[in-house]
Amino acid sequence: MGRYVARRLLQLIPVFIGTTFLIYLLVWALPGDPFAGKCGERPCPESFVAVMREKFNMDDPLFIQYGKYLLNLLQGDFGETFSGTSVGTLISNAYPVTIRLALIALLFEALIGVIAGILTGLRGRGFMDNLVLVSTLFLIAIPTFVTGYLVQTVFGLQLGWIAPTVSGNASWGELLAPGFVLASVSMAYVARLTRTSIAENKRADFVRTAVAKGQPQHRVVGVHLLRNSAIPVVTFLGTDLGALMGGAIVTEGIFNINGIGGLVFRSIARQEGTTVTGVVVLLVIVYLVMNLLVDLLYAVLDPRIRYD
Amino acid sequence: MRAGRRTAFVALPTAAALLLTACGGGDNGGDSAADPNSEVTVFTTEPENPLIPGGTNETGGGRVVDTIFSMLVRYDNEDASSVNEVAESIEADEDGRVFTITIKDDWKFHDGTDVTAQSFVDAWNWVAYAPNGALNASFFEKIEGYEDVHPEDEGAEPASETMSGLEVIDETTFQVTLSAPFAIFPETLGYSAYAPLPEAFFEDQEAWEAEPIGNGPFQFVSRIPDQEIKLARFEDYAGEQQPQIENLTYKVYQSLDAAYTAVVSNDLDVLDQIPVSALAGDAWQTDLEGRTLEVDLLLSYTLSFPLYDEVYEDVNLRRALSLAINREEMAEQIFFGNRLPAQSRVPAVLLDDPEGQCEYCDYDPERAKQLLAESGYTGDVGITYNSDGDHQQWVEAACNSIANTLEIGCNPEPVQTFNVQREIANAREFTTMYRTGWKADYPSIENFLTPLLRTGASSNDGDYSNPEVDAKLDEADQASSVEEATELYMEAERMINEDMPSIPVFDDKGQAGHSTRVENVHLNPLRTLDVLSLSLA
Q: Which of B137, B254, B439 sits opposite A256 (nearest CB)?
């Protein structure tokens, strides 16, 4: 187990270097000179362009640029934006907000999704089952920005139950509604995954054995059935956290949340390679760590899986 | 195996703890000391440059710079005429080449030091000096000695650190010598590139950038990047009108739509532009009933010709294309009347009588066909535009209008970003018409002519050149008064419109909204919010 974790952690290093380089390369390959449009319809003074290119090592060959960036990164220096703001500051402002938003969304989809899945999976083919199937189909079909504007207009502007836009602090309470919006699509997937998984395992040998042993219903469902049905759901939830963090641009834009989705989007538009790489590197780490955790959880959930 | 499972159980809470502690670090905006009722919030976007007046040229940073700095002159809310602010007087000599500027003696910077003639001269020299790489350096190119501090050749060593045309006479007086007469020079001095800088800037630029010190009505308090910039009233502000509000916070919004929702729900106090989605069907007038305003802006949209491409050499083709665009219908149907059909290349606000400035700027299908026949052109035309702005709709509409009227093909040709579009413009590689827009730096007709259309001018991307126009612009520059200069510039514009080097399409209107908490919200034609008159309701 320990060796398995160590090996997985060591694997992070090449993945880390590879992804940072790829991202750096992609931003570098964006069409257009980042300073061509910076002065509106007039060309920027050559002196300005020269100073900026020098400052951001843009005249060096790509590999040397990347090398210099990586060297600074290893010393904990994320670099600067074109406006002279430290990327480290931007990240430390935006990440906590995004993590809060993603955790709230994850909680919503886990709670509502799993409960709906269990209820329908156990009973099957009743009114409840149809209700969940139809409503999840509905949720999957509606794009997030529609749900977002709908929630904002109805609950924020018309009913006044929530603040339509989130303040700079972005406290847990304020992020409930955006978190729900963000979770809406995945919630439907979780419900369907859980339902299918439970319906399948209901007829599995170990469940029949448990029932035959005379175990009470709640133990059969709670311990035997649920735990073994949880694997696909946990896999989905684990990777979804990463997707929720990086893919919340639309929700962030609607509710004015200062998160990393918007940060990456704006940096790409400005072709600020340092910012994009810095933010995405951390996202990659989140993905990798979540994947590792999910893999470890398999061993907890299913006694047949071992890592030695 | 059991040990393995226990390790996994430990891993989860540890990861959760890591995530949760990261969340704790986020509560850094909780400045509860300021009374929330005295704070007025104003929309902005994240500044794209350090907040140095000579190094900022986009609106996000411009809003902040215009609030923490006061220039020699300011522009009136209604007609954008210039009024002395820090300047006591600006006297021109007979030729209009040497200007003696006297400043009022009671102005102070936010750190308590005096605003002196030296503060202006030092600031201007700093911005112009090439190695400092300031964005607005070219605003000083008319001053004598500019080529010594900013040589044209890239990489050449500047011969001097200061411009010979700037001379401090005493504490409150300095003299500006231009390399050629320029009658309207005093009108230009309200642009932020001409702001003074305190000594603290030159002592430690990095510290100054972290906490900018200006001489304007509000001083810098704190800033959280991508979130907000807090400003507070400067108690020693020497301007005639004192600010009415105590605290002003520029709030950074992730999207214009979010800002709009915030102002509708009274969460944001001032929003100086309205998203296109809310302009549709005039929804904003209902959403923000009784708290809207609208001003005519000094911003014009044009379609430019690459005159270096022989296809567009024929003047009759250019005139025909201009006459084929139905501006009225486009303004009404696409922008719901929130843009004005252009009557000339200078926005109507700046002209007493815009009619008669441009013979070929109306929609006249008959004449358009006739001129096209005269030109003998039978091929297709295209319009290039950048697809990262809100331009697709109107460019396509203009193309349709051209195609329907002239019965030739017209292809809208999008490029990915504004950066790409500018790269093509700088390389002179357009083969079609292309979308352009020009926002005035200072409220003068000259600003819509000289930089764009004089031979070899910095933004003359189409390589338009007409010696007679150049001579007329020279004559206007040398005029003895602003009025006389204006007349001559108008004459020059009429000459340019005959040549039609670019097609004027729209003048922009600025829409703004505010919360019920504030009143006296005014924007000037440069879309600058008047922070002095702004008050709590």
A: B254
